[in-house]
Amino acid sequence: MEGSNRENPILYLVVPCYNEEAIILESASIMKARLNELIAKNAIGKDSRILFVNDGSKDNTFKLLSDAAHKDPVFIVVSLVGNSGHQNALWAGIMTASKADIVITIDADLQQDINALEDFIKCYKDGAEVVYGIRNNRESDGVFKKLTALSYYKIMHLMGSRIMKNHADYRLISRKVIEALKKYDESNLFLRGLIPSLGFPSEIVYFDTKERTGGETKYTLSKMVRLATDGITSFTIVPLRIVSFTGIITMLLGIAFIIFSFVEWVQGKNVPGYTTLLLVTLIMTGVIQLSLGIIGEYLGKIYLETKKRPKYLIDCVIQIEKESQTDD
Known about the structure:
Layout: E1 11-17, H1 24-40, E2 49-54, H2 61-71, E3 75-80, H3 86-96, E4 102-105, H4 117-125, E5 130-135, H5 143-158, E6 167-174, H6 175-181, H7 191-198, E7 202-207, H8 221-235, H9 238-266, H10 274-307, E8 314-319
Parallel strand pairs: 1-2, 1-4, 2-3, 5-7
Antiparallel strand pairs: 3-8, 4-6, 5-6
Helix pairs in contact: 9-10
């Protein structure tokens, strides 16, 4: 594989979109202006593009993007069949950016500061293959989201994951990293954990988050829980070990309670009655149910992996070449 161009790299901005009609044209305009600024500074190649991934939007997002792509060749649109999920949409965009030396993934709402792009590219030119965008703070989050996010990172780190704290898929990856990612065929994607595990030279760029200019966040509580579960079960078996450890401790406590009850009976004392029995039953039932749930999550992952179903299906790609001005 030929080395990537570090002096004047071709950049593809990969932007997953789901029901973003309220802001998508404004975001596209801002991205194009920023891309042109970087091209004018000779920071990136003139063939750099903005690649939108329409993840099964139910509103007018695809139509707006399609019109923009037909009018301006800087925009490329990849439209997926149905809603494949944020991680799969990112993957589809990365895998489609075949002409890119570097790919930077960013959210369509541009809450992630697009002005940080130049810092990303500088780190790449200095030798980094991966550059992580890290939030300076979480002031734009609500109290509940802030507490759950910080707790999640602590849990992931305790379990041995190399996930970056306050990093949410705003990153640069080089062509070398993309070629390495192509070798990973797993169905359950969690790029925030997968990319750090590759071990490529990396740098960090800090940025401030901004308020959405329109629309609503598409990361509902259920989606955040699903992402958190995928992150834990995709990169560590520590929960299974906790289940085993809990089983051993519970068994030892059960043996100790049996011995205690037997001694009490020999001494002619009354064995504690219904309250103790009820508490023990409830605790044991809870432990068993939790253990089965954790094991079930891992079995479900194995089941999905064995099916070897595609992560996504592409409905169409709209790419107008500057020379021919024809659909690709």
